[in-house]
Amino acid sequence: MSTFLEVSNLKKHFKTPKGLLHAVDGVNFKIDEGKTLGVVGESGCGKSTLGRLIVHLHEITDGKIFFEGRDITNPPPKEMKILRKKMQMIFQDPYSSIDPRMTVFEIIGEPLKILNLYSNKEDYNKQIDQIMDIVGLAKRVRGAYPHELDGGRRQRIGIARALVLNPQFIVCDEPVSALDVSIQAQILNLMQDLQRDRNLTYMFITHDLSVVKHISDNIAVMYLGLIVEFCETKALFKAPAHPYTRALLSAIPIPSVHERRKRIILKGEISSPINPAECCRFAGRCIYAKERCQQEAPQLREVTPGHFCACHFAEEI
Ligand SMILES: Nc1ncnc2c1ncn2[C@@H]1O[C@H](COP(=O)(O)OP(=O)(O)OP(=O)(O)O)[C@@H](O)[C@H]1O
């Protein structure tokens, strides 16, 4: 298996009136071809910014991105056009940026038009019909407007719009967060089927660990712009190493009367992403924090084979 996507010391700092906001602050990871990396963490930890950096919807402050072994950090315009096809993004609410007067058919076909990827009208229609069929959208909704459809169908449109370009890599940003649990399962199943059939590689962003449990091969846990834990999904659920991950996991209900898990309620100050201090960013909320945590930022280090954690005391707690 080959490394498909790699990011190295990736950073995005936003200028704000109060100082530099370190939204993504030196992130490293790799994703193998055909695999899914789940990226989890609370609102504001930098998940969406990270996804947008990778697909070049944000300018990069520092660091590098490699795709299929090539440096794509600052691609020239010609390569950018190719990357636009190969890398796509699915959003929680794709309609905020789409003209509400566009029909389902027009929305799905728009990327083909923008990148001029069809030979004639017949080819254009055929490509859209095929993709609608693949994502389970009936022909009769071709002329419908998104607001006339339920959440599940609307998300199928978002998926079709990304897939119509035949990408290899998709950043999925909270694609099921706005959906009912039963519809969530349908969309997640569809995404898994598409991954298998088309050998897609996913980065799946969510604030909800239970959503990525069954679809991710690896999970990266983010906290205030940093990855604080990275490992295989099974290892994360079996033996979470970072106190923050433990708190996230403790919030997931267990569907068993025999098992109970003590809920860890995070207390204390969330530190600011603006001009962050050189210390553990989680220290203010961590029940295990010691003096060293206030003085020295923990590096992401391998605590057991393949299991990385940024906590000075991961082995002790
Ligand atoms: N364009 C921007 N300008 C300034 N600050 C920004 C911008 N975009 C994001 N931020 C800030 O960067 C930080 C990370 O935001 P981001 O949206 O990436 O987090 P997130 O984990 O995806 O959260 P959510 O799930 O709420 O979207 C936040 O503090 C946010 O306010």
List keywords for this structure.
single chain, 317 residues, alpha/beta, Rossmann fold, 12 strands, 31% helix, 24% strand, globular, binds adenosine-5'-triphosphate
Biggest sheet: strands, sense, closure?
Answer: 8 strands, mixed
CATH topology: Rossmann fold
User: What gross morphology would you assign?
Assistant: globular
What ligand molecules are bound, each kind once? adenosine-5'-triphosphate
Distance between the termini: 34 Å
SSE order, one letter for each helix or strand: EEEHEEHEHHHEHEHEEHHHEE
Gyration radius over CA: 21 Å
Identify the strand order in the major beta sheet. Answer: 6-7-8-3-9-10-12-11
Q: What is the total tally of β strands?
A: 12
| Total domain modules | 1
CATH structural architecture: 3-Layer(aba) Sandwich
Show unreliable segments: none
What's the helix count? 10
Strand-pairing-aware structural class: alpha/beta
Considering DSSP H and I runs of 4 or more, what fraction of the residues is helical? 25-40%
Mean pLDDT across every amino acid position: 93
The CATH homologous superfamily name equals: P-loop containing nucleotide triphosphate hydrolases
Determine the strand fraction and express it as a percent band: 15-25%
State the name of the first-level CATH class.
Alpha Beta
GO molecular function, one term: ATP binding
Keywords: ATP-binding, Nucleotide-binding, Transport
Domain ABC transporter: 5-249
Pfam families: ABC_tran, oligo_HPY
